[in-house]
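Design request, C-alpha cells follow.
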C-alpha cells in the first residue's frame, strides 16, 4: 500500500525516536522497483521508500518511472512510500507531488547558504499543499550518485552544527541530509564518519537526519549513526553492485540462447536479497 505523506513522516519519526532508520532504496527500472517491493514484503513490519528521483529519471524518463514506482507501491501488501531524491527543480518537485509522492528532497547543497534556505522554504511550502514531507541537504558529499569507482573518502564541505540549526529553523524542513564524512559510492579506503560532528548536529536541531552514501559503510559506523539522530539511510551503490554481479554471473549461460529474462530475473533477485538484508540491519 502506498503510504501517505503523514503516515511516512510518522514512520520516520518513530524510527528517529527508537534509534532505527527508514531505508530509502534508489530504483532505476522495472526490476529494481520490483525488487525493492519484494524486499519490503519479505519484511512486512518495516516500511521502506522507493527513491525514484532526478538521476534515475535521466535513464527511464520521469513519467514512466514515476508511475511505475507509485503503481508498485499501491499494489504492494505492505507499507511503501515513494520519494523524490536529489531534486534541484521546483517544477519537478511539483510534478511528483501532484502524482502522489510521499516525500521529496530538495537539494540546494550546491547553493550559497541563504539561497539554499530560500529554495528549501519554497519546496516546503509546495509540499504542504499535498501533505508530503520534505528532506533538504546542507553540506556536500564527494562521489557520484550513479557511478561508484574510486570515490574519495574525504569531503571538504561538512555540515556545520550551528548552521544546520539555523537552516532547519528557517525552512521548517522535516529531515536534513548531512555531510559528516559519508561518500556517494564505494571507496578505496574505509569511510569513517565524524560521529562527534553528527552528535552536535543532532543536538542542535529537532528533526531526523539523513545519511546519503551509506553503501559499504562499516556496520559499527552505521549503528553509531543511528544513535546520533540518523533516521533515514539512502542505499544505491550496494543495490547496483548486487544487480550487476548477478547479471555478470548469469551472462555466460544466457548469451547462447539470448535469454534476457534470466538476466533480468537474476538481477532482480540479487537486489531483493541485498535490500532485505539492509532492512533488517536498520531495524
Amino acid at each position: 500500500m502506498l503510504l501517505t505523506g503523514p503516515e511516512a513522516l510518522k514512520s520516520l519519526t518513530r524510527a528517529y525516536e527508537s534509534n532505527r532508520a527508514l531505508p530509502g532504496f534508489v530504483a532505476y527500472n522495472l526490476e529494481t522497483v520490483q525488487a525493492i517491493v519484494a524486499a519490503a514484503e519479505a519484511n512486512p513490519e518495516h516500511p521502506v521508500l522507493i527513491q525514484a528521483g532526478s538521476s534515475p529519471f535521466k535513464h527511464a524518463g520521469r513519467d514512466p518511472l514515476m508511475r511505475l514506482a507509485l503503481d508498485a507501491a499501491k499494489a504492494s501488501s505492505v507499507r511503501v512510500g515513494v520519494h523524490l531524491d536529489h531534486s534541484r527543480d521546483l517544477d519537478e518537485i511539483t510534478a511528483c507531488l501532484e502524482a502522489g509522492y510521499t516525500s521529496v528532497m530538495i537539494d540546494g547543497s550546491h547553493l550559497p547558504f541563504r539561497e539554499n534556505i530560500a529554495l528549501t522554504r519554497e519546496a516546503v511550502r509546495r509540499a504542504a499543499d499535498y501533505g508530503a514531507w520534505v528532506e533538504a541537504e546542507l553540506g556536500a558529499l564527494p562521489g557520484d550518485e550513479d557511478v561508484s569507482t574510486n570515490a574519495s573518502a574525504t569531503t571538504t564541505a561538512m555540515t556545520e552544527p550551528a548552521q544546520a540549526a539555523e537552516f532547519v529553523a528557517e525552512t521548517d524542513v522535516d529531515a536534513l541530509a548531512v555531510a559528516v564524512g559519508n561518500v556517494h559510492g564505494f571507496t578505496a579506503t574505509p569511510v569513517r564518519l565524524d560521529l562527534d560532528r553528527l552528535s552536535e548536529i543532532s543536538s542542535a536541531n529537532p528533526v531526523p537526519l539523513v545519511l546519503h552514501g551509506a553503501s559499504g559503510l562499516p556496520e559499527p559506523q552505521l549503528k553509531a549513526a543511528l544513535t546520533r539522530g540518523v533516521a533515514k539511510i539512502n542505499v544505491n551503490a550496494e543495490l547496483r553492485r548486487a544487480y550487476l554481479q548477478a547479471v555478470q554471473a548469469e551472462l555466460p549461460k544466457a548469451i547462447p540462447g539470448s535469454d534476457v529474462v534470466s538476466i533480468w530475473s537474476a538481477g532482480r533477485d540479487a537486489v531483493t536479497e541485498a535490500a532485505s538484508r539492509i532492512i533488517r540491519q536498520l531495524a
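Comment from the thread starter after seeing the answer: thanks! The chain has a mean pLDDT of 92.
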